[in-house]
Amino acid sequence: MSTTPRPRRARPLTAKPSAVAGNGAPAGDHVEAVHRAEAAVEEIEHSQEALRERARTALGITGSADQAPPLREGIRRTGVGWYPLMALSVLVVVDEFQSYAISIMGPEISRTLGISKSTLAFLVLLKTLSIMLASLPIAAYVQHKPRRAAISIVAAFGWGLMTLFTGLVKNVWGLLAMLVADGATTGTVHAVHRPLLVDTYPPEVRVRGLSFYRAGGAVGTVIAPLYVGLLSAVFGFTWRGVFLVMGLTCLVAALVAVRLRDPGLGRWDTERVRELVRDEEGGDKEAVSEDDARLRFFEIVRRLMLIPTIRRVLAAWAALGMLIFPLYTFLFFFLDEEWNLGPGARSLFFAAAWAFSLPALAWFGRRGEALFREDPAKLVRFTSWFLVVFAVAVAVGVASPVLVGTVLGFGVVFAMAALLLPALSIVMLSIVPPLMRPHASALGGIFLAGVGGIGGLLLLNGIDRRFGVGGAVVSLAVPGVLAALLMRRAAATVNADLDRMIDEIVEAEEIRALTRRGVHLPMLTCRHIDFSYGHLQVLFDVDFTVDDGEMVALLGTNGAGKSSLLRVISGLGLPSRGSIHLRGTDITYLDAERRVQLGITQVPGGRAVFGPLSVVDNLLTFGHTHGRDRKAVERGIEAAFDAFPRLAERRNQPASTLSGGEQQMLGLSKAFIMSPRILLIDELSLGLAPKVVGELLDMVQRINAAGTAIVLVEQSVNIALSLVDHAYFMEKGEIRFDGRASELLARPDLLRSVFLEGATKGLA
User: Fold this and answer.
1) Given 12, 217, 219, 761, which residue has the most CB atoms within 10 angstroms?
2) Per-residue pLDDT tens for 21-42?
3) Mean pLDDT comparison of 282-286, 465-469, 486-490, 655-659, highest-scoring range
4) What DSSP character marks residue 591?
């Protein structure tokens, strides 16, 4: 089935019939009122289209490669000056001191502690795992409390101490402990440094700011090997002394950052978009607080993984990790074995090679900023060529018959590696809301260091044993080409994902504005829903609305998408496009259990009970929403037994021994216990006798009369239209009709398929 979104349907015009709605109002008036509420929400779409270009400009994307203001001017305008950028750059300079010292002094450490290079590589791998495990909990912490600056400072002191204590280890276990602890503190760099910079400085200087920050890392990679060489070759320190001195240096650098402060989330981008909406509305200019239904940690991670560009960039990070992390470990053994370079010479080699990255970053800052302002997709495509050059330069560096050629080759390699971090970071962090940036940054670090680093070390260990260290390093060209292809694919989706983020911000702010003005909004609104099972798309641009106390029929043949739409509403499936709002609150990516707490309950067709449990135990499971309020649960159970006396008679029987109708009664009883705002009923009459169906329908009407909105999914047109005044008809994943139930009977083109299917089943 095609995944191309279908054109939006036109709502049919309806005339007022004489029927009466369940809430006492004439059915026509009721449906028209629902449509007016829908129209208020649909006005948001016009605002999204009108504000999209202005919002892109506010986010630094002007559509032309015009020059951004000078970096010093943009930084001065923030009011915070150069200090945050300089402080974080100093921290990233010393962050990798331990890692580079381990790499450069690896042969000496290996001989002293009696471990092989494969064992040392495995220990480095465990450090990358600790980085992976630490970064996401840190992201989870800062999503509730924006204390990214404080965490950065504490972590800096932490890795300074770990670097110092590395010089005191006596065996492989002590080395493992120091590497893992250092990795845990380094996780903060992946989770909070770049999001902190992005929120500190405006969009027009972010690429250059991130390039400056990455230049700090490059300076660290130049200083670290020179520092190691100076301490070991000139001053005669052993590897233990090298770590002690470098640890003290890290602690001094951490003192530089003690005045860092967190500027808050979205100061320069999403808040600008919200201000555009408030200016357009001419309403209150006060900042709007976050919704109570803010996404939690795993909901944010799941949301990020649904964004096509994020998935592709993360895959590129993983391929890049397969290049970089094994390269650092195996390169120094290559220099030791192939060129007989000692610690001092290896240090000079590494410093000279990384020095290439400094002019490359200075050039990329302006060029990357211009490309991003013109079109983010151009920046992504431009970046993909860095990976191709990276792969070619690795092969040239290893194959060179002279040392100068090896230095030049790896100089280009490190220059390309340095350019990739600001390029990939600005792409990832620009298409997600500020609340999600630490999570996106942490995921990038996990895929880079964890998935890619682990995969690369496992790959190179096998190749090393068969083809030697040189062959292992040359093999890194393969993941380089793969990463380039992944980046080319990301270029195709980045603009759409950027517009999606803008539309979500505008939509949320517009709904707040409508709420402040007292405009009536539907209780449940699904807009432009696309949903897929894997690569098979089953819902196409679905709009669906349920108002307070309304009973709605959702009709269609098998495979029309009715049950899939209920899954999306209840949170059992997440849409690939579109939004779901409950009383104006965005619940599109909330977990199913949180939606139950908000009042959305589903009775799935044929799967509404737990067979091994007794009737009473089934009812008790529905009472989890009441927490420890046992009396509320008991009242709900008694109400269910009053409504369905047959369940009271069978209260101690296993649910699997009940008849089909009794099981549906038991499933429907959850409404008496959970008191939902909206009850989704899937195929209530499926396989049941008419008498039983009549009893169930009477109870559905009773539940609706108590104030619960009902969505009734049915294949039986007669049953559905005897209850409701508002009906939707689905066919092939699309809404084909939305209006009064009486008008649906006048559409034989829609109903013919239902009747024909039923007749075919009857004949069979």
Assistant:
1) 217
2) 444 444 456 677 677 666 666 6
3) 486-490
4) -
Ramachandran assignment for 117, one of left (phi > 0), alpha (psi -120 to 50 degrees), beta (any other): alpha
* Residue 554 three-state SS: strand
Collapse the DSSP code of 356 into the 3-class scheme (helix H, G, I; strand E, B; otherwise coil) and give the result.
coil
CB 531, CB 571: distance < 8 Å: no
Q: What is the bridge-based pairing of β-strands 551-555 and 709-714?
A: parallel
Give the single-character DSSP code of 583.
T
Q: According to the model, what pLDDT value does residue 394 have?
A: 81
Residue position matching structure tokens 């200090």: 83
545 sits in which H/E element: strand 536-546
Q: What distance lies between CA 65 and its chain's CA centroid?
A: 30
Q: What number is the average pLDDT over the span 307-336?
A: 82
Nearest 5°: the CA angle 294, 307, 125 is: 95
Q: For residue 542, what are its two tokens?
A: 């679905």
- Helix H or strand E segment including 145: none
Q: Are the C-beta atoms of 215 and 86 separated by less than 8 Å?
A: no
| Structure tokens belonging to residue 151 | 């965490």
CA 115 to chain CA centroid, nearest Å: 40
Written as six digits, the tokens of 153 are 């400072």
Structure tokens at 283: 């309403």
Give the 3-state DSSP-derived string for 185-217, with helices as H, strands as E and coil as C: HHHHHHHHHHHHHHHHCCHHHHHHHHHHHHHHH
Q: What average pLDDT score do residues 738-755 get? A: 73
Structure tokens at 654: 């296993």
Residue whose token pair is 């996106």: 440
User: How far apart, in Å, are the Cα atoms of 650 and each of 232, 315, 535, 616?
Assistant: 83, 55, 45, 9
- DSSP-derived secondary structure letter, 446: I
Q: Give the three-class secondary structure for 576.
A: coil
Q: Cβ atoms within 10 A of the Cβ of 111, count?
A: 10
**Mean pLDDT of the chain, nearest integer:** 81
What single string gives the DSSP state of each residue in 699-755? HHHHHHHTT-EEEEEES-HHHHHTT-SEEEEEETTEEEEEEEHHHHTT-HHHHHHHH
Distances (CA, A) of 252 to 165, 245, 388: 15, 11, 39
pLDDT tens, position by position, 222-268: 888 788 878 887 888 888 998 999 999 999 999 999 999 888 888 78
Q: Is residue 91 scored above 50 in pLDDT?
A: yes
Asked if 594 and 304 count as a contact pair (C-beta separation under 8 A), the reply is no
Question: How far is it, in rounded angstroms, from Cα 72 to Cα 65?
Answer: 19
**Hey, what's the torsion of the CAs at 20, 25, 28, 33, to 10 degrees?**
-150
Cβ atoms < 10 Å from Cβ of 652: 9
Rounded to whole angstroms, the Cα distance separating 632 from 616 reads 15
| CA-wise closest residue to 739 among 21, 22, 28 | 28
Q: Strand runs (DSSP E) across 434-569, as ranges?
A: 524-533, 536-546, 551-555
Closest CA to 142 of 256, 257, 263, 253: 263
Q: How far is CA 292 from CA 16, 374, 437, 458, 581, in A?
A: 39, 37, 20, 45, 13
Cα–Cα distance measured from residue 179 to residue 286, given in angstroms and rounded to the nearest whole number: 48
Residues 6+ apart with CB under 8 A from 583: 521, 523
